[in-house]
Amino acid sequence: MSSDDEIYMDSESEEEQEEEVEDQILDEKGLRADMKQQIAEIQSTVEVSEGVGRLLLQKHKWNKDSLTDKFYESPDRITFLIESNVHPKECVPVETGEGDCDICCETTELVGLSCNHRCCKECWNSYLTEKIKEGQSEIECMDSRCKLLLDDEKVEEFLTDSSIIATFHRLILNKYVSSNVFLKWCPGVDCGKAVKSTHCDPHLVTCTCGTGFCFYCTNEWHDPVNCHHMRLWMKKCGENAETATWIINNTKDCPKCLAQIEKNGGCNYIRCTNPACGYQFCWICMNSWSVHAQAWYNCSSFDQAAESNREKYRTNLDRYIFYYNRYRGHQQSLKLESKLIRKVEKKMDKMQEKGMSFSDVQCLRHAVDVLSVCRQTMMLTYVFAYYLDKNNHSLIFEANQKDLEMATEQLSGFLERELEDEDLTTLKQSVQDKSRYVEHRRKRLLDHCADGNEQNHWVFIE
């Protein structure tokens, strides 16, 4: 038995050890049913219509406990509703009858709310249509001084266009998901489903459309990097990825505002092109031009402090490029995964032609999946390392990272091998052993990162 097998045998699979997370994948119909169920629970407590119940829950970000606490703390039901900017029907009778509409000045039947701010149905329809087109699902009374919210039933009563009513329903559903910490839209293209979780902490979610993402930030799953550092990294990549190397080789930084400046002429007099700066300095010594002009000899003297500041900035940029290149390398390998799959499938066919069974060669296809997962992890470990400050625990992390990097490349090498002059049984065993070892090392690295988070071993730098 190989040492790789010995390491693997006593360890449970990663799926068995991961904490079970009960997530529900809901389509539009399921979301509406879920929303109505929560509203119904509040209706029985506060004794309001479905539309008012929805507004109350929306105000409390769909936290039923928060809403009921406020309700029972209030002196009475009427006070609670009025303070929530919704009126019960029994609170104030709604005036009816004809009159002059304050909006269009026509004499016609006027309708309104319990606040008795009234206008004609056509003006209500126009007002509500405009608000819905602006993306509002909680709409206040037309009177600018009144904060009373129209319940959903009243909005539908005043609207005449079925397409606008349908848009209003979609806005309600979108707001239900976006304001509820236990719900997230799947970011998959044209998916339209949402995930409901029992907790809002970062964890991997896999939608029925096949999209995997982080529940907390809805970006691609990024373990072991936390959501904050992942956002910083993506922003930094967007700003620096294509230009970092060119900047180092061809520019200097304005001594005042640190804007990158390219010298496009022979004169060493430079004026910063940043409109908010305009600093004038010498390209050689980087001092203010006025100081430089009065003391030319300083241009040939070495200024340790100034040079140290520039070196520090350049060192930081070099450090970013170091980690970015390794991040990018695994990212590019992942983009070539489909090519590797085709190559491995051809190799599997050849192995079967040489006498191996279909089940025997499936280890190669499994190894491709293992390699893909490990490259994804390796890619993210360089983001983790970029923000990680040096200490004894970071040295252990780097050792685990190095082991996984080496094992991942070895597995990749096995899959890329040509079959000529290969012992197929030995190749199959090597691929199986290395796949198991890589899975084991990946788990060890992620466990170490998770333990470090729990025990506050990591020190991060921004």
Biggest sheet: strands side by side, in what order? Answer: 1-6-5
How helix-rich are the residues, as a percent range?
Answer: 55-70%
CATH architecture of the largest domain: Up-down Bundle
- Given helix and strand content, the structural type is mainly alpha
Distance between the termini: 46 Å
How large is the count of helical segments? 17
Main beta-sheet annotation: 3 strands, antiparallel
Q: Tell how many strands the DSSP assignment holds.
A: 12
CATH class of the largest domain: Mainly Alpha
How would you summarize the topology of this molecule?
Elements: H1 3-9, H2 14-17, E1 23-26, H3 28-46, H4 50-59, H5 64-73, H6 77-83, E2 98-100, E3 107-112, E4 118-120, H7 121-133, H8 152-158, H9 162-178, E5 183-185, E6 194-197, E7 204-206, E8 212-214, H10 227-240, H11 244-250, E9 251-253, E10 260-262, E11 269-271, E12 280-282, H12 289-294, H13 304-335, H14 337-353, H15 358-386, H16 392-416, H17 424-454
Antiparallel strand pairs: 1-6, 2-3, 3-4, 5-6, 7-8, 9-10, 11-12
